[in-house]
TrEMBL record:
InterPro entries: DUF1800 (IPR014917)
Name of the protein: Uncharacterized conserved protein, DUF1800 family
Compositionally biased region (Pro residues): 1-18
Record's compositionally biased regions (Polar residues): 116-133
Species this chain originates from: Micromonospora yangpuensis
Alphabetized Pfam families for the sequence: DUF1800
Top-level taxonomic group: Bacteria
Length: 649
């Protein structure tokens, strides 16, 4: 964690923690070093808010919650990594000892966090970022519990039935729950019931055809965001009027993405949109990009998220958002800008280890000259295009004409070649396996996915079907941890937060609807947590491994937000009261805790976790209780949402 006004201090084992720390969100370390720090939390928010100990309770709620929620960070791969040193410092000795901390240059036992010496600040590609973080002792512990091999079956249901889950995990080894956690932004009782009713195969087939799934009320209400309906030229020309209405397109495209993650029934599609937003990344709020990112989301990412990656890459390279983001508009034959050419190789296709050299970057940059943006639209300028033979990796082209039709055909042929390159197949496969299976996915699965990608010329649906039909997917229960956005969205989903304003909501800002205001508040909270859609400022997407997100402040902040949802503080939405989460709640404390756990995390807690929860409630298991659990139902529900069962996906 780094203060806003000072460079981050070197990591020291067992940090000293001040009585009332002020937390920033996690800061991703990208190619340019530390990313932009998130705003400091205001005084009185964070730990003091969590500290609701009461003298009459036998065990303080804060300590019990810390002991319980601390194990969530993380019981991954069966190795109880537990609390990070920062969190243990906050809460005393609660929680088990970690195997190692990868957030700095050393781990708690003094050994190097990244034995290769490779620091995240020097890492360029999405895969390399993840591998850098996993090059720690804690990463090795995760690897030890990851299945190392597997096989493919005739379909997902057959693979689920035949696969025995052998990894150590606190999660229930129920294939329906596993699918709901991995292929969506969070299981809900309705979703789980739907999968059980139609079956695994039918549910996946339906999810792979999102256009056939009816929009939900939350999606229909996106009409409240005026910028989503406008094209890039309209957004540019109407910027002043939109600003007066409090409608910024670069923010509303993020607001809309969050809404879809929470409320859409097209969950697998939204997961893949999020995946591509990290893989083929264009920041939502890059300088000058406001009018263009909405169209990039619609015409590039969403148009091809379950389609063809070669088509997505070609479309992206003709889109003003990417051309402006990576300075292609400034590139011409006599003054070449290499940014887009480099990222097309390093980030968007073969990867840094894909076999290209600097001369390939230069040749690609020359070939792509001429493409740019004029008056808000994509253009090709023949007078800026380099004419002459080019050779990039195994691709060669005469490129002997500046005629737009011929020159652009040459560029598109090159991009298609890149997208279908064997290194790209492996790169896409690796990242999909990291997203859906494990921070350290088995090579057998990566190879199988890459083979399917190549055989189907980069079409994504067959690759996903191969993934879901593989034993490695079904064997990896509990091998992924929710990143901050995923944790928060899953919490909204499982609590059944509805997109309509609460009764009595005071809509003080008449320029924007309660729904639009509420989404912006969720967006701002995710910015505070350091993880929001399209939020990474540099071209590398957010990392998708747990060790990149270890942050005491983020964990506590997430617990506090869960408390806010349970008490309905954000009145732009409607909530189920905590005492009504369980229909006909049992009359004894232990049975009530069990029922609440089944409602929120779809399974029973361990005996130790149940004891800690009862400590939070301050009553024994056999005590008679009402629907409010003696006034403790919010604290208990919040603690369950701090459990490993809710943090893991």
């Amino acid at each position: 964690m780094a203060d806003q006004n000072e460079p981050p201090p070197a990591h020291q084992p067992g940090p000293t923690v001040q009585p009332e720390p002020r937390w920033t969100g996690p800061q991703w370390i990208g190619p340019q070093g530390l990313g932009q720090p998130t705003p400091l939390r205001s005084d009185g928010v964070g730990l003091p808010y969590l500290d609701d100990d009461e003298p009459q309770r036998p065990v303080g709620r804060r300590r019990a919650l810390a002991a319980f929620g601390g194990t969530a960070a993380v019981v991954a791969g069966g190795v109880a990594l537990g609390l990070s040193p920062q969190v243990r410092g906050l809460f005393g000795d609660a929680g088990p000892t970690v195997a190692g901390d990868a957030t700095g240059p050393t781990v708690t036992d003094g050994t190097p966090a990244r034995p290769s010496g490779q620091q995240a600040s020097t890492v360029r590609t999405y895969t390399e970022q993840n591998e850098s973080y996993m090059g720690s002792r804690a990463g090795k512990e995760l690897r030890r519990n990851t299945p190392t091999g597997g096989r493919s079956y005739s379909g997902p249901a057959a693979a689920a039935e035949a696969t025995k889950v052998t990894v150590k995990t606190v999660l229930a080894k129920d294939p329906v729950l596993h699918l709901a956690r991995r292929a969506t932004f969070g299981a809900t009782p309705r979703l789980v019931a739907e999968i059980r009713k139609v079956g695994i195969d039918a549910w996946i087939r339906t999810q792979l055809e999102p256009a056939k799934i009816a929009p939900t009320r939350g999606e229909l209400k996106l009409a409240d965001l005026p910028t989503l309906k406008l094209n890039s030229r309209q957004l540019r020309d109407q910027r002043e009027q939109l600003d007066q209405r409090g409608a910024q397109p670069e923010k509303e495209v993020v607001d809309a993405t969050i809404a879809r993650q929470i409320w859409s029934d097209r969950q697998l599609f939204e997961v893949m949109v999020d995946f591509w937003n990290d893989f083929l990344h264009v920041a939502a709020d890059f300088d000058g990009g406001g009018p263009y990112r909405t169209a990039f989301d619609r015409d590039v990412v969403r148009a091809h998220a379950l389609g063809s990656y070669p088509e997505m890459l070609v479309a992206a390279n003709r889109h003003p958002a990417l051309l402006l983001y990576l300075n292609q508009n400034d590139s011409r034959a006599d003054a070449v800008n290499e940014n887009l050419a480099r990222e097309n190789l390093e980030l968007y296709s073969v990867g840094v280890d894909g076999g290209y050299r600097e001369k390939d970057v230069r040749q690609a940059a020359l070939l792509q000259t001429g493409r740019g943006v004029d008056d808000g639209e994509y253009v090709f300028r023949p007078d800026r295009h380099y004419v002459g033979k080019v050779k990039i990796l195994g691709f060669s082209h005469a490129n002997d004409s500046a005629d737009p039709k011929k020159a652009e055909a040459a560029i598109d042929a090159y991009l298609t070649y890149l997208a279908l390159h064997p290194s790209t197949a492996k790169y896409v496969a690796q990242n999909l396996a990291v997203r859906f299976v494990s921070d350290t996915p088995p090579k057998s699965l990566v190879d199988r996915l890459a083979k399917t990608y190549t055989a189907n010329r980069g079409r994504i649906r067959p690759v996903l079907m191969t993934l879901f039909s593989s034993s490695e997917f079904w064997a990896a229960v509990g091998q992924k941890v929710r990143r901050p956005l995923e944790y928060l969205v899953a919490t909204y989903r499982v609590l059944g937060v509805a997109p309509d304003a609460s009764p009595g909501h005071d809509n003080r800002d008449n320029r924007r609807t309660p729904y639009a205001q509420g989404l912006r508040q969720v967006h701002d909270k995710l910015r505070e947590l350091g993880h929001h859609p399209m939020g990474q400022p540099t071209p590398d997407g957010y990392p998708d491994v747990y060790l990149a997100w270890t942050s005491a402040g983020t964990m506590v902040n997430g617990w506090n937000e869960a408390g806010d949802l349970l008490t309905g503080r954000r009145t732009q939405f409607t909530y189920t009261a905590a005492e009504r989460l369980v229909a006909d709640p049992p009359g004894t404390a232990g049975a009530y805790v069990d029922a609440l756990a089944r409602r929120l995390v779809q399974q029973k807690l361990t005996t130790r976790e149940r004891e800690l929860i009862l400590d939070i409630a301050g009553v024994p298991a056999g005590a008679k209780v009402d629907a409010t659990l003696g006034g403790a139902v919010v604290a208990v529900a919040r603690a369950i949402l701090a459990s490993p069962q809710h943090h893991l996906r």
